[in-house]
Specification:
The structure is a single chain. The two termini are 16 Å apart. The chain contains 3 helices and 4 strands. It is globular and about 40 Å long. It has one domain. A 4-stranded antiparallel beta sheet has the order 1-2-3-4. The chain has helices spanning 7-17, 22-37, 92-100, and strands at residues 42-46, 49-58, 63-69, 72-77. By secondary structure, the protein is an alpha+beta fold. α1 (7-17) crosses α3 and α2 (22-37) packs antiparallel against α3.
Length: 103
């Protein structure tokens, strides 16, 4: 049974995955919503280093943040990405993705 606190996240997941069949299509639906609503670029700290999240991308099995520091680029699974405080606009979609993934 879902808790009352998860009801908004469940509604967001339902909106993103309404016509999806299977996990691949659900992942694609969630990626689309994150890509449309997450305000990028934004800065955050990964392993004690400040990075800029330039965009989000999707792989075969995950949504990733494309992070940059100087000339270096690194893809970090969105499930593992620490968010800054305050979180960027649209970060609730990351929360919905984490909830969908069971994190």
């Amino acid at each position: 049974m879902a808790s009352k606190g998860s009801a908004p996240l469940e509604a967001m997941i339902e909106k993103a995955t309404i016509d999806a069949y299977g996990d691949d299509e659900q992942l694609a639906g969630l990626f689309t919503m994150i890509e449309e609503h997450l305000a990028v670029p934004f800065t955050t700290t990964v392993l004690g280093v400040e990075v800029t999240v330039r965009k989000v991308d999707v792989t075969a099995d995950a949504i990733v943040a494309v992070c940059a520091r100087g000339r270096h680029r690194q893809r970090i699974d969105l499930l593992d990405l620490p968010l800054p405080s305050p979180a960027p606009d649209g970060a609730a979609w990351i929360d919905a993705y984490r909830h969908w993934a069971g994190r």
